[in-house]
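Thread: quick sanity check before group meeting

JM: Hey all, I'm pulling together slides for Thursday and realized we never actually wrote out the predicted structure for the chain we discussed last week. Dropping the sequence here so it's in one place. If anyone has concerns about the input, flag it before I start.
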Amino acid sequence: MARHVYGPVPSRRLGRSLGVDLVPLKTCSFNCVYCQLGATPRTTLKRAEYVPTDEVVEQVRARLAEGPPVDYITLAGSGEPTLNYSFGSVAERIREFAEAPIALLTNGSLFHLPEVRGACRAIDVVIPDLDAGDEQTFQLINRPHPDLTLEKLVGGLRALRDEFAGEIWLEVFLALGLNTADADVEKLQGQIERIRPDRVDLNTAVRPAAEQFVRPVPPERLEEIRRMLGPKAEVIADVEALEQTPQMEATGRDVLELLSRRPCTLQDIATGLSIHRNEAVKHIQQLLQEGEIAEAREGGRPFYRAR
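JM (edit): ok, ran it. Output follows.
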């Protein structure tokens, strides 16, 4: 049986987030230059039940029973979760037994479809992307399916705002020189005002990206952009600032499952799985020796990812 649940993953917004993977690796409508999972071989808009709903729900139930405790259950994973036409049913069934709030981590590309907006009834927080204020920058950064435009994306998010009872946390990924000039930020601000999110999270490259030309934005420029975008904007806190929880046990497979979804530092692994750093080191060394993972460096820090 495939494993569709991973983590908890240390999240800079959601604390310890139990990830729920609803699509196969890189099944996505975007091919973002900054994606930490690498390039999308072929973008798609095909909606299907990519993974068995019953299997997913039972794996969530089992993982919650095992612990450690989680702050959010996040529908996300290896691609665009709203391409799975059962994502709303998964959320509704999890809501029946889970106390933790449910978040949807999405690129926002399918909210122009009424059925996608309607499927968010059991979701507490929708976290969509908006990385561009004009069509040219949208195509440059997000490299979407040919049938998608920035106006379709923004229009769908505006409709979601009118219909959705929960919160919308808009994520803006900033890449130095691609969307960080004052003119770029002003255009972004105009689109944000149209969407009317509850908050705006500013992110930048802290892990290896799909394209080597993606560079992180220095902290001082992030702060300038935050001020330009107004009081709803905030720079997402570093995951290492999360408080440690009681120590749990984890296997090498748990570590590998985590790294198959996202590159992590040693501290990410220890924090996400609630294990001591020494235990994380032991698993990393074993997985490196077995050739299951590889080490890369970003900003002088080592990251580990599944091969």
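AS: nice. The longest strand covers residues 167-174. Confidence is low (pLDDT under 50) at residues 239-247.
JM: adding both to the slides.
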